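@channel anyone free to eyeball this complex?
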Amino acid sequence: MTEVIQISEKSKDFLKKVEEISGEVITLCEQCGICTTSCPMAEDMDVSPSNIMRLVQIGDEGVLETKAIWFCASCFTCTVRCPRGIDLAKVTEALRQINLRKNTDYLDINRMDESEVEDLPTIALVSSMRKYTG
Amino acid sequence: MKKFPYYPGCTLKQAAKHFETSAIASAEAMDIELVEIQKWNCCGAVASLTADDMMHHVAPIRNLVRVQEMNEKGMVDNEYRLVVFCSMCFNVLKRSAKRVKEDADMLKTINDFMDTEEDYEGNVEVKHFLEILDEIGFDSLTRRVKKPLKGLKISAYYGCTLLRPRGIGIDDPEAPSIMERFIEALGGEVVDNPYKSLCCGSYHTVGGNKELVAERAYKIINGARDNGADMMITSCPLCAFNLDDRQELTKKIHPDFQHMPVLYFTQIMAMAMGMEDRAGLDGNHIDARPLLRERKLLEG
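replying in thread with the prediction:
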C-alpha cells in the first residue's frame, strides 16, 4: 500500500524557514542513514538524525519538540560523512535556534547546584549557555 | 626568538592554567615567544552555525583586529599567524575568519558595526600550535628533546573541534596522524585508540546530562587502556575536563573503571624539553606524577 503524504503550505513554509536559517538544502537528503550510524548521541535521542532530516523535509514542526535536537553536540561527525554534502550540524542548530529565538531557554543555570557550577571550567559554561539559551 | 601573536582564551587563564604554563614553555623550547594579544575577548567557545546570524562572529573578528594592531605597533614582525592552543577557540576563530574572507558583504557589515575599531582586512591566519610545530618540522622538535619520553605509552585524543569540519580541522578527519607524529617526535610510544575522535559529550557536562559524559569517558579511556596506554593527551580544555575531572563520576557508575591520567599535549612536550617545573603537573585531576616517577621520567 502506498501512503501519500500531503504536504501543506504551512509545512512547506516550515521547510523553507529551516533551509533559510541553516543555509542547507535539506531536500537533498536521500535517507541513507549514515548520519545516524555515525552519531555518538543517536542512542540517547528520541528521534534519529536521519529522522530529523525527514521530519524537516515533510515540514513536520513536531521536530522542534524532540529531545534529539538538544542532544546534538555539534561534533560534526555526520557533517564530514554525509554523501550529499549536507551539514546536519547546521540543521539541528537552526532547529534549536527556532526555539531559542522565542525567548525560551533550554537550560536554567539558576536551578543548578552552586558548588557544581563552581567546579565547571569557563569553556563548559560559555558553550552550554551559547547552545541552550536564547 | 620568533614572536607570534597568541590567543589564550578564557579557560587557559582559569581551570587550565597548567595548559598555558606548559604551552609558553613548549613554545620557548622552539624559540617562539608567544605575545598575548591585547584586550582579547571571549571567542564564544562554540561556532555560530546559522546562516543568518552575524552577531556572534563579531567577538572572534574583534580578536583578529587586535592581531592587525599588534603588527602595526611592531609588537610582532609582520606575523599574521595567530597561535591558538585551545581546540574550541581555534575552531571558532578559524571559522569566523574563513566566513568573512569568503563573504565580502558580511565582512563589510561587521566592520561597519564595529565602528570604534579599525576595519578587519581579512589577513589573519588562525593556526593551532600543533600546525606550527608541523610546519617547523617534527624532526626539529626531536632534535630539541632533552628527556625523551622513553617507555611511556601515550594515546592521542583528538576530539571534535581540532579535526572537524573539513577545511577547518588540522588533519584528515577520518584518519588523523599529527598527534601521533608529535608523540613519536618526543620519544613516546604511540598507542592507538579507536575512539580518539569520538565526541566526549562536550557541554552536556553542564546540567542533567553529566552521566552521559561520564559514560563517554568510560568508553574513550578504556579504548586507550585496552590497547595498553598509560595516559592520553588532548588539546581541548572541555575534553580535558570531561575525560579527567569526570573520571570520578565514571568510577561511581563503573566500580571496575581504572583511572588514567589525561594531560595537555604541551605538558608532555615541556617534560620532554627538560622543563618539568613548567609542565604544570600539579594541575591535572588524575595525577600523572606517580606514573612518571615509576617510569623514571620524573625524579623525587
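from a first look: Chain B touches chain A at residues 9-11, 14-16, 42, 44-47, 49-53, 56, 86, 88, 160, 164-166, 173-174, 197-199, 201-207, 212, 216, 237-238, 241, 245 (CB under 8 Å).
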